[in-house]
């Protein structure tokens, strides 16, 4: 069912959190804990169906400093880069047959609980400059995007091993390589992320389409399935439908599955994304503050003054179809005033898991263990007896060495990233 597909992409986004090294005591803080060949297997996530082909990195030179984590070590693996996501491709015949295509997945890391990065947003829009025909300026109806998101996506640092290319350039080169490698196959490109990662998923999905990197290189037949664009989200889970809708036989379909995503650009950005055929599904908890920003005051809801507000540099617009969930509908979740609970990705996937349709009762027949909600939060009702924030390294990474001293646990040699 579509519900399971949405959760699948949510788990890819969650993996970017679970595998990220947040510990500032570690010399590898800011990197991924495992190498690409073993990452999916370490977390029990579809390693038989997907293969990670590339890690993506962003540089702290971008204008979102609180998003980055740095090591306190005197000899860190990198002083200016963080792991920010990955590219994967479906490889098993079973998964390809099930989907009717070979799926290229792009997962972006966002923010787990702390919302400090919101203060870094400059709350101003700038020309995207991502159209290859524009010579650095927007030519499609004055397409503008949030300055901080664009900076994170496009900033590079020539002296940094991992960011001689920007996150954008890393992604583009890998998409080009994979579409050439599998040019005889029916392909799709699916981008996912949570919070700030959702913003990057939408921005990069737009960029791939605008840069024509989703043009087919071979003559693969189109799949027979072609869902109605008018299908109501109220009964979206009543149909075993694909997320991907192919409008043009010459294009690889691009789909963005966004969790708790903020607004990224203006109405011209929204219109251009739609015109390019990028499909966007936004999953939103109605009590979560992040999807309401930027543009709390002026946004897409003020259509009656549309012509005027589009000229204001802080006017934003959401893109795509919204699927709204509500944490108050789950019998497993307690009442809370903590905004990080409403924003938690595991809680989002729990709410999708129990969603049965607009106005319908929350299902208790869940495919995912509700205990996962408390992995990085305190959101479950107490009678369930699941500890809050239960996911943590044993003894915070300390182990006893042969000399009897407690020292920080090292990594397996194959999981140590090359130093800058």
The low-pLDDT segments are: 219-234, 236-241
The total of helices stands at 10
Based on secondary structure, the structural category is alpha/beta
User: Overall 3D geometry?
Assistant: globular
Strand adjacency order, main sheet: 1-2-3-6-7-8-9
Q: Main β-sheet: number of strands, strand sense, barrel status?
A: 7 strands, mixed
Residue share in β-strands: 15-25%
Question: Roughly what is the average pLDDT, rounded to an integer?
Answer: 85
What does this structure look like?
This protein is α/β, with parallel strands linked by helices and 420 residues long. 22% of the residues lie in helices and 15% in strands. It has ten helices and eleven strands. The strands form three sheets. It has a seven-stranded mixed sheet with strand order 1-2-3-6-7-8-9, with helices on both faces. The chain has a two-stranded antiparallel sheet with strand order 4-5. A two-stranded antiparallel sheet has the order 10-11. The longest helix is centred in the first third of the chain and has 17 residues, at 2-18. The protein starts with a helix and ends in a 12-residue tail after the last strand. Residues 219-234 and 236-241 have low confidence and may be disordered.
């Amino acid at each position: 069912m579509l519900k399971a597909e949405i959760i699948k992409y949510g788990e890819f986004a969650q993996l970017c959190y679970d595998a990220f090294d947040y510990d500032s005591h570690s010399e590898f803080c800011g990197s991924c804990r495992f190498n690409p060949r073993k990452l999916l297997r370490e977390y029990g996530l579809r390693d038989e169906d997907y293969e990670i082909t590339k890690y993506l990195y962003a540089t702290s030179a971008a204008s979102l400093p609180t998003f980055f984590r740095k090591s306190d070590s005197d000899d860190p693996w990198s002083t200016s880069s963080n792991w920010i996501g990955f590219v994967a491709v479906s490889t098993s015949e079973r998964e390809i047959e099930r989907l009717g295509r070979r799926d290229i997945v792009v997962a972006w890391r966002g923010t787990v609980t702390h919302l400090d990065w919101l203060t870094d947003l400059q709350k101003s829009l700038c020309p995207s400059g991502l159209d290859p025909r524009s010579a650095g300026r927007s030519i499609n109806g004055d397409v503008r995007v949030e300055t901080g998101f664009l900076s994170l996506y496009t900033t590079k640092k020539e002296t940094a091993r991992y960011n001689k290319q920007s996150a954008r350039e890393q992604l583009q080169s890998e998409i080009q390589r994979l579409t050439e490698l599998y040019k005889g196959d029916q392909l799709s490109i699916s981008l996912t992320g949570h919070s700030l990662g959702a913003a990057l998923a939408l921005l990069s999905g737009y960029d791939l389409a605008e840069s024509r990197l989703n043009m087919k290189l071979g003559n693969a037949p189109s799949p027979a399935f072609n869902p109605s664009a008018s299908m109501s989200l109220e009964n979206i889970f009543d149909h075993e439908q694909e997320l991907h809708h192919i409008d043009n036989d010459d294009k690889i379909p691009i789909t963005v599955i966004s969790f708790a995503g903020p607004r990224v650009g203006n109405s011209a950005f929204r219109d251009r994304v739609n015109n390019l055929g990028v499909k966007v599904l936004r999953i939103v908890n109605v009590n979560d503050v992040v999807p309401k920003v930027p543009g709390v005051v002026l946004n897409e809801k003020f259509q009656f003054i549309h012509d005027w507000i589009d000229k204001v540099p802080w006017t934003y617009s959401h893109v795509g179809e919204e699927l709204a969930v509500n944490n108050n509908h789950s019998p497993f979740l307690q009442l809370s005033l903590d905004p990080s609970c409403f924003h938690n990705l595991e809680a989002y996937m729990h709410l999708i898991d129990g969603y049965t349709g607009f106005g319908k009762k929350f299902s208790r027949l869940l495919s995912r263990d509700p205990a996962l909600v408390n992995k990085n939060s305190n959101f479950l009702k107490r009678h369930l007896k699941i500890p809050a924030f239960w996911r943590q390294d044993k003894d915070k990474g300390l182990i006893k060495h042969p000399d009897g001293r407690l020292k920080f646990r090292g990594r397996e040699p194959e999981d140590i990233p090359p130093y800058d």
